[in-house]
Design a protein that fits this description.
This protein is an alpha+beta fold. It has helices at residues 52-59, 111-118, 170-177, 205-208, 221-224, 238-241, 248-263, 282-288, 328-346, 354-370, 375-386, 392-403, 408-418, and strands spanning 15-18, 21-24, 43-45, 48-50, 74-77, 80-83, 102-104, 107-109, 134-136, 139-141, 161-163, 166-168, 192-194, 200-202, 227-229, 235-237, 277-280, 299-308, 311-323. The chain has 13 helices and 19 strands. It is rod-shaped and about 175 Å long.
Length: 421
C-alpha cells in the first residue's frame, strides 16, 4: 500500500513521485502557497517543494537596489546582490559597469556624479577635479586654471604673488597692488624709502635727485612740482617756495607772531622793535660765524657787551641775521630760536654751556611751532625733537624735560640764577 506524503492517506489511483516520495497529484503542491504544480517545474529546499515565486521569495538573494528577489542573472558589488538593471548611479540612475564604478558610503556612483558630489573643486573654474591637479593658496586647481587673475596667463615655474587669496603674475601684482613711487609713479619693486611726509619712492632716486634744504623732500615734478636753486647753492622745492620769506616785511610779521606766542608764556621783550633784522644767504652766515655755518637754526644773533674794567657799561643786540628764502614755518622756528638768544642776552644770563644755551633756544622754537596747526610746523617740531646733535638735540630734550615740572618763566629764572637746567 502506497501512502501520500502530503496527506498521509492511501493512494488508490494515479499519483506523483517526487523528492523520493509519492503524492496524490493534488497534494504535490508548494509548501507556501499550496498551489499544486500540475506538471509545472518546482524548486526544492529542505526536502519541501516550492513554486518558483515562493522559492525565490523565501530563499533567493534580494536585490540591494529594489529589495525584490533576484531570479536569473545578477551582479555582485559592494558586498550586495543587484538586478543588473538596478545597479545604477545613485544620482543619475544610469546603469553602471560592476567593474568600473565609484563608491561612497556603500553607494555606487558613476565617475561624473562621484566627482561632482564628493570630489575636490577647482578654485579657478569651480568644476570638479579629475586627474592631475595642483595645490596652491590652500586650494586645489586644475593645472591649466592656476593662472594670473588679471592677464589669465600661466605662471612660469609655478611662481606667483598672492593678494586676498588670488594669484597674480609679478607684472600684474605690482601694477595692481604695489605701492607706487611718488617720484616716478611706477610700482615699487625691491627696496624703497619713505620720507617724513609719508611719501614712498624707489631707493635709487635718493642718489639721483636733490633734497629740499628745508623739508628734505626729493625735488622733482611729481613730488614737489620741481624746485629752485638759490644763489648760495641751496635747493628749495616749490612746495616750500609757496611760503618762502624773501623780504623784511614778511620777516617782521613772523617776529610779531613769535612775540605774541611767547607773551602767552609771560615772556616779554619790549626792545624787539629796535633790533635790526637782516635776511642773508649761507655765505654771509658762514662769514659771520667765522666758518662753519650753523646747520640747525640757520640764523645768528650778533651782540656787543661794553665793559670798563670789571663793570659792564652796556649790552646791545647789534643784529639778528636770518637765512632768506625758507618757508614760513621753518623761518618761524629760526626766528623763535634767535628770540631766545636775544631774550637771554638782554636778561643778562651768565655764560652757559652750549648745550644749555642752544637747548633753551630750541625750546623757544618748539613752543612757537606747537601753536601753529600745519604739517610743516609738525615736521620742524619733529626735526627738533629727533635731532641727534649732542648740543642742539640733547640740549632741547633736557630743556623740555625740565619744563615738564616748571613754568617757562620759572625755568628761565632758575637757569639765569644757576646756569643749569
Amino acid at each position: 500500500m502506497v501512502s501520500c506524503y502530503g496527506c498521509k492517506k492511501e493512494i488508490a489511483s494515479e499519483f506523483v513521485e517526487a523528492l523520493g516520495h509519492q503524492w496524490h497529484r493534488e497534494h504535490f503542491a508548494c509548501a507556501v502557497c499550496h498551489r499544486s504544480f500540475d506538471h509545472e517545474s518546482f524548486f526544492e529546499q529542505g526536502g519541501d517543494p516550492y513554486c518558483e515565486r515562493d522559492y525565490f521569495e523565501k530563499f533567493g538573494k534580494r536585490c540591494h537596489g529594489c529589495g525584490e528577489p533576484i531570479r536569473g542573472e545578477s551582479i555582485e558589488a559592494l558586498g550586495q546582490s543587484w538586478h543588473r538593471e538596478h545597479f545604477v548611479c545613485t544620482v543619475c540612475h544610469h546603469g553602471l559597469d560592476h567593474e568600473q564604478f565609484f563608491e561612497q558610503n556603500e553607494q555606487p556612483y558613476c565617475e561624473r556624479d562621484y566627482y561632482e558630489t564628493f570630489g575636490t573643486r577647482c578654485k579657478g573654474c569651480g568644476e570638479a577635479i579629475r586627474g592631475e591637479y595642483v595645490e596652491a593658496l590652500g586650494c586645489s586647481w586644475h593645472r591649466q586654471h592656476l593662472v594670473c587673475s588679471i592677464c589669465r596667463q600661466p605662471f612660469a615655474d609655478n611662481n606667483f604673488f598672492e593678494h586676498d587669496g588670488q594669484p597674480y603674475c609679478e607684472h600684474d601684482y605690482y601694477g595692481q597692488f604695489a605701492k607706487r613711487c611718488s617720484v616716478c609713479r611706477e610700482p615699487i619693486r625691491g627696496k624703497f624709502l619713505t620720507d617724513a611726509w609719508d611719501e614712498s619712492f624707489c631707493e635709487r632716486h635718493q642718489q639721483e635727485m636733490e633734497q629740499c634744504f628745508s623739508c628734505s623732500r626729493l625735488i622733482c615734478t611729481n613730488l614737489t612740482g620741481g624746485g629752485v636753486r638759490y644763489e648760495d647753492g641751496r635747493e628749495i622745492c616749490n612746495i616750500c617756495r609757496t611760503t618762502a620769506i624773501d623780504d623784511l616785511d614778511q620777516l617782521r610779521r613772523l617776529l610779531d607772531d613769535v612775540r605774541a606766542t611767547m607773551l602767552e608764556h609771560e615772556i616779554r621783550l619790549e626792545a624787539l622793535d629796535e633790533i635790526p633784522l637782516r635776511l642773508a644767504g649761507l655765505d654771509d652766515l658762514d662769514q659771520l660765524a667765522g666758518g662753519g655755518t650753523p646747520a640747525i637754526e640757520a640764523g645768528m644773533t650778533l651782540t656787543l657787551v661794553t665793559t670798563s674794567g670789571d663793570r659792564e657799561i652796556s649790552r646791545v643786540v647789534k643784529e639778528v641775521v636770518i637765512l632768506y628764502g625758507l618757508p614760513r614755518e621753518h623761518t618761524v622756528s629760526i626766528v623763535a630760536h634767535e628770540f631766545g638768544h636775544v631774550w637771554c642776552f638782554l636778561h643778562c644770563f651768565p655764560e652757559l654751556s652750549k648745550k644749555t644755551k642752544e637747548g633753551l633756544c630750541q625750546l623757544f622754537a618748539y613752543i612757537c611751532l606747537s601753536q601753529r596747526d600745519s604739517a610743516e610746523a609738525r615736521y620742524h617740531m619733529k626735526t627738533i625733537a629727533d635731532n641727534l646733535d649732542p648740543e642742539y638735540g640733547q640740549g632741547f630734550r633736557e630743556a623740555k624735560q625740565a619744563l615738564s615740572s616748571a613754568t617757562l618763566t620759572s625755568l628761565l629764572e632758575r637757569v639765569r640764577q644757576t646756569g643749569e637746567l
